[in-house]
Specification:
The chain is of the alpha/beta class. About 20% of the residues lie in helices and about 25% in strands. The chain has 13 helices and 21 strands. It has an 8-stranded parallel beta sheet. Strands 1, 16, 17, 18, 19, 20 and 21 form a 7-stranded mixed beta sheet that branches. The chain has a 4-stranded antiparallel beta sheet with strand order 2-13-11-12. Strand 11 and strand 12 form a beta hairpin. Helix 6 runs parallel beside helix 7 and helix 12 packs across helix 13. It is globular.
Length: about 525
Amino acid sequence: MTVSRRLFMAAAVATALAASSTSLATAVARRPDGAKPPHRIRINPADTPDTLVAKASRVRPTARQIAWQKLEQTAFLHFGVNTFTGLEWGTGDEDPDVFQPTQLDTDQWARALRDGGFKLAILTVKHHDGFVLYPSRYTTHTVASSSWRAGKGDVLRSFTDSLRRYGIRVGVYMSPADENQYLDGVYANGSTRSPRTIPALVPGDDRSGTAPRTFTLDATDYGAHMLNQLYEVLTEYGPVDEVWFDGAQGRIPPEKVETYDWDSWYTLIRALAPDATMAVRGPDVRWVGNEGGLARENEWSVVPVKDSGNGSIDYALKYDAPDQGSREALAEARSVAQYLQWWPAECDVSIRPGWFYHEDEQPKGVEQLTDIWFRSVGRNSVLLLNIPPDRRGLLPDADVARLREFRERIRRELPRDLTRGARTRHDRGAGTVTVEFGRAREIDRIRLAEDIRYGQQLEHAVIEAHTGDGWRTVTEVDTAGASRVLTLAAPVTARRWRLRVTRSRDTVRIAEFGLYRSEV
């Protein structure tokens, strides 16, 4: 396919893409017939490589996924009984009274996250141990069984109130694995799926006189337990913007297994929190494949997937495969994949060696965090950085200071887009965007973004500078997606700069071609 036939079309930086999810919902590109384009397209082993690429070019993100991708930098807060026992994976039989945060201040968390540039934060409402950070009706392994705040404490309530007060979106993590419910004979007990009414009212239930909205969903005994807790979280704590699952199984005998009721869980979430993103064992966002916060050099948002049972999708290629979405990867996966799906990557990593707070650990340095940012946000992914509260119930002073330093460092890496006010020309037939400054400028950082409402299409482009010897290639790139940040080994000085697409799947619509001179 020639460049002229690809009809490269540049679009102005779309401020709507940085707006709220509500405004984004109206910004998703529609087909001429008014229908929303698909975020998933079926494939089969008979599809040729060209057919696979053509299908991939038609996959589009949902408004929910676009809003999530624009967050760029989100936070995780691992907090619970492990904070006080020193474990990373709890046992489920902890004495709830071990949970004693003496100075819990979720406003301090929210201020630190806001000052660090985070747009959303996820709390471990329930980790693998099964201890719940709010007074659930469905287990005694909760804050209500602790003497902390005389059994009246509710970390989730404080967390959600504080985040909204400081303008940060709310995310919740509910571990599918539950060691406490295994000990209670509920998790992995061999029960069959059957219709369950959610919520299941308990004796003395304060909702019994309010006729709560009910659902009938297929679930195991434990699946119903999760549904009831999800119902509590999603109906009693205000709007939730992300629900985060992993796929961990409990540390149980090998002959035991709990087949998770993903379909029912997803159905309930979509009904109660329709704008919430479901990650990373969810249909909206995938795990990048490591816990180092590092995306692939070329990270595709359109990837081959397969059904894994009970309504869940899974990687068609290995979860940590070095290539998830190139032409070669699509061809390799066609024998096992059922769909091509918009399934962008989230890069999770902890600021400390552990996910929970340990007194003998220290936070990563600014240089390492900056490298992680360039290799996550700068590679078409969203960074999920864990900052664990300590035993006081505060984010450690060293971590708070590091977050401020980190945000300032990124600001200095990309201080001001020098193309603002410059003359920019788009030549669709030639597949180029040209920027002309009034005088020669030093550039050492370049930021690219496609208008992902129209998919991810760019497969190769060169960035060129016009010097006394004419146009010369400064750097090349094979993917862009929602965000691609390139660093030059040394500054290049030129008055004219050009982005030239040399290969694409379909029409490439550029939302950003930013040129920067770092202050580092």
